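Worked example

This section walks through a single chain of length 165. The input is the sequence exactly as stored; nothing has been trimmed or padded.
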Amino acid sequence: MLNLLRKSTARKQHAQRLYDGLVTRAREPVFFAALGVADSLDGRFDLLVFHAWLALKELKGAAVAQDLTNLIFTGFDEAMREQGAGDMSIGHKLKAMADAFYGRVAAYDAAKEEQELAAALARNLWRGGQVDERARALAAYAAKARQSLARALPDALDFGPLRII
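Given that input, the structure is written out below as tokens.
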């Protein structure tokens, strides 16, 4: 019994380290400065979802994937509470965020090539924007990040070098 608890605690600590790395990468200034993603709640949400998709795609089947997903949604809940959302509205807002999260993940998963991913990114990160150099650069970054993540996960979170443009 104690061994199970230790394994569960270790897995949750591991998930917390992955989550912290995910948030750190998603908040890198280059995404806002060089790529023009809005430095707003929506922009930060979209970048976190994008990076979560990259990591969760590589973690598919790993026990830590569900713990990481739980932490992501706990983070959403905490962010809404910090902004003053009341208990009565949190459930509805979390449902809307979950719908947006899984909708974006499905759109990114459906992209079979870099150009399709660029189009999905343009729709989500730039709210219906056209596929341009920024979207293509982020799609190319995704391909390189997935290679780095495939080598590093599930042990560590490594998106690789942050060279976007």
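What to look for: DSSP finds seven helices and no strands in the chain.
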